[in-house]
Specification:
Elements (H helix, E strand, L loop, with lengths): L7 H7 L8 H25 L13 E2 L4 E3 L5 E4 L11 E2 L9 E5 L5 H4 L6 H11 L6 E4 L27 H5 L12 E5 L1 H6 L4 H9 L9 E5 L1
Parallel strand pairs: 7-8
Antiparallel strand pairs: 1-4, 2-3, 3-5, 6-7
């Protein structure tokens, strides 16, 4: 990380002739280069490592530059100014209002951590709880009964038995097959109270995140407890 370390104030001071390195001049330069430092921090601290901010509260008062984590788990920065461009404080305006807020990060979890996420059970559970900023979400792997599945391979050794006089032939080959078709490989369990707090789109929010790490071909369902 040392290769990318950057302090705009040190750079500004080093590029200023010694005779001009007076407190007033340096203070002015620090103000000029502050936006550069903010951009560096947004990339190499917030995006790379993690955005450590509080959840948005409609009762709180926010000042220009304050950041919060909203319902979509993205990071928003207060950027409201009056008609003269002077920064203003405000309250009661949700991050969905682009007049008051600007999205600065799509997800509060750092990229350094997210690249390690996978569908491995313990890691998947950790990722779900971390993203939704809660506890109690867990996964159970479901046993798929091979006796309820019909297999056809290019060899008889790897295929289900299908003799002409089989008692089960009609079940498997008829238009109204009776073998199970909706089997889930695993189930994501969500605390009922927390699921309710997510609103009517709860399953959609959970699915959107889980699908990023679900293995291709694996099916899952969501249940509450």
């Amino acid at each position: 990380m040392a290769l990318y370390d950057f302090d705009s104030e040190i750079v500004a001071e080093q590029l200023t002739p010694p005779v001009l390195r007076q407190p007033l001049m340096l203070a002015w330069l620090y103000v000029l280069v502050k936006p550069i430092q903010n951009k560096w921090a947004l990339i190499f601290e917030d995006y790379k490592n993690e955005s450590v901010y509080s959840d948005y509260s409609g009762a709180a008062t926010y000042n220009f530059g304050d950041r919060v984590i909203w319902d979509d788990k993205a990071v928003y920065e207060a950027t409201y100014t009056d008609s003269d461009g002077v920064a203003q404080s405000f309250s009661g305006e949700a991050p969905s209002n682009i007049i008051f807020w600007t999205k600065v990060n799509d997800i509060f979890i750092g990229a350094k951590e997210r690249v390690k996420y996978s569908a491995q059970k313990l890691l998947f559970e950790y990722a779900l709880n971390k993203f939704f900023r809660t506890t109690g979400i867990y996964i159970t792997n479901n046993f798929v009964d091979s006796g309820n599945v019909f297999l056809m391979d290019d060899t008889s050794e790897n295929s289900s038995v299908m003799p002409l006089d089989s008692l089960y032939q009609e079940d498997y080959m008829d238009y109204t097959a009776t073998y199970a078709t909706a089997i889930y490989d695993y189930t994501i369990f969500i605390p009922a109270a927390f699921h309710t707090s997510l609103g009517s789109s709860a399953d959609g929010l959970i699915t959107n995140f889980a699908n990023k790490y679900n293995l291709e071909g694996m099916q899952y369902d969501i249940q509450t407890y």
